[in-house]
Design goal:
Length: about 375
């Protein structure tokens, strides 16, 4: 039977490795018979969602027997005013993850086109490329994981359809600075679609002295019309469990993506909670402060343990343990702490640790220190 099934599956699917998400906290507690665990593996918001989002979601639950608005009309209106982009330039996905897949399905010809990114980029780009049988090419980064934009430009061929750049990137946390992005855009062939994945935008923007660019600025005539900006409600808005992300792009791009999008991909609770979240700027500000203080504290504490930790404008930190992390990862799990080992990203000596509450940070670093000593 297995042989028969194998014979029916195309090679690109046969060799595809399923994405392994961070272990859910409930599963960890059950498996290890412990009563408390800390999950800092998925760059979630330790503050949780806005109370306004919770209220809006609760109100919407009563209508769960009704299909959601397939066009997310109300959310679109609120978001349009919030980001200053017209409603026909907006499209929603069940997380920005779905939009990454939708871009590949909408624009790439399987077996013909190429997708380009750099090493250690967000892993969904690779998974979607392979799932849809589109050639995937990665270029070099420097020893600090900074993207080499010249190498990326040199790798462009007539087959290059889409370039994915996460800014800041997950898992390295590195960001591309404004002058570098502008130089890259000025040399980018006009027919290549550039996706700027800004999942951590709200954490990064306005960081003093860091020259973090808002890619929306470059969408119009002066630079690159084929620019798609991705953002999400999963990170600073604390709605990862509801799955809402959005893309902003030329209305013709959005129109094509809408033809491929499943009609009711954003459920009604998610639509209501996302719209309400946009009204709570105090929650966003508080979340940003927690992330900035948290990453600074984590980098300082990990550096004091003799580890190489990478500062970032996000809500997570990359740390190099200088040796394979698998057994350390498992020991931390046994002690009720879930971090993210980065073997699947090609970084077997590295962990990615998200910002938790200050008690969680202290507990994670103390436990890591104990495990490293043992
Ligand atoms: C760079 C980047 N892009 C996209 C995503 C996907 O986020 P979501 O699908 O929850 O919107 C993530 C999640 O970790 C991310 O780090």
């Amino acid at each position: 039977m297995n042989n028969l099934i194998d014979s029916l599956v195309p090679d690109n699917i046969k060799t595809l490795k399923a994405y392994k998400p961070g272990k859910p906290i409930e599963a960890l507690i059950k498996e290890h018979g412990i009563n408390k665990a800390i999950k800092v593996a998925s760059n979630e918001n330790p503050l949780g969602p806005s109370p306004l989002a919770l209220e809006a979601a609760a109100r919407e639950l009563e209508k769960m027997h009704l299909y959601p608005d397939g066009d997310s009309h109300d959310l679109k209106e609120v978001l349009s005013a919030h980001v200053g982009v017209s409603t026909d330039e907006l499209i929603f996905g069940a997380g920005s993850d779905e939009l990454i897949d939708l871009i590949v399905r909408t624009f790439c010809k399987p077996g013909q086109d190429q997708i380009l990114t750099h090493k250690y980029a967000f892993i969904s780009y690779k998974l979607s490329a392979q799932a849809h049988n589109v050639e995937f090419i990665e270029t070099a980064v420097d020893e600090g994981y900074q993207v080499d934009l010249d190498a990326l430009l040199e790798a462009i061929t007539p087959k290059t359809r889409v370039i994915f750049l996460a800014n800041p990137n997950n898992p390295t946390g590195q960001h591309i600075r404004r002058p570098d992005l502008e130089r890259f855009l000025s040399r980018l062939p006009r027919e290549v679609i550039l996706v700027m994945d800004e999942a951590y935008y709200e954490y990064a923007i306005d960081s003093e002295g860091k020259e973090y660019p808002n890619s929306l600025t470059y969408r119009h005539e002066t630079s690159h019309p084929l620019l798609i900006t991705l953002r999400t409600f999963s990170k600073i808005y604390g709605l990862a469990g509801l799955r809402v992300g959005y893309a902003m792009a030329d209305c013709a791009i959005v129109d094509y993506m809408n033809r491929v999008r499943r009609p009711f991909n954003i459920n009604r609770v998610a639509q209501a909670a996302a719209a309400a979240s946009l009204q709570d700027s105090a929650h966003v500000e508080q979340s940003r402060v927690i992330a900035h203080q948290g990453t600074r504290t984590m980098v300082a504490l990990m550096t004091s343990l003799g580890l190489k930790a990478y500062p970032s404008l996000t809500n997570f930190t990359l740390v190099d343990l200088g040796k394979p992390v698998d057994s350390i990862y498992r020991q931390l799990l046994n002690l009720g702490i879930v971090v993210r080992p980065l073997g699947p990203w090609g970084l077997p000596d590295h962990l990615r640790i998200s910002v938790g509450t200050s008690e969680e940070i202290d507990s994670v670093i103390a436990t890591l220190s104990k495990v490293l000593e043992s």
